[in-house]
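Hi U.,

Before I forget, here's the chain from the pilot set. I'm dumping it here mostly so it's searchable later in email.
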Amino acid sequence: MAARPEPYRPRRFDGLGLWPVGDGVLKAYGISATPEPVETARIDAAKACVAALTIEGPDGGFVILHRGEEAMWLLVHWWMPGGMLAERLFPSRPRHRRRLPCR
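Structure:
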């Protein structure tokens, strides 16, 4: 028998501004499973990670820095020519103090 899905729980949601990448910028957002915002040091590390990415364009897109219950995720999405949405996902385990891998 399949596991029951977890019930919805509200998340904290914050706008983090525009982050430079390649020849453009991406809108950035922070989501947290706890009432506290994502830590400034984590935001700064994620912003540096995004700035170091090699992305053609982009023609718009967004970044989500999501602190969940089990891990921190950096999700980078951008529009490519032809209307294709590309993505890069970077996990980090905050309990183990591992940094976001930027490769």
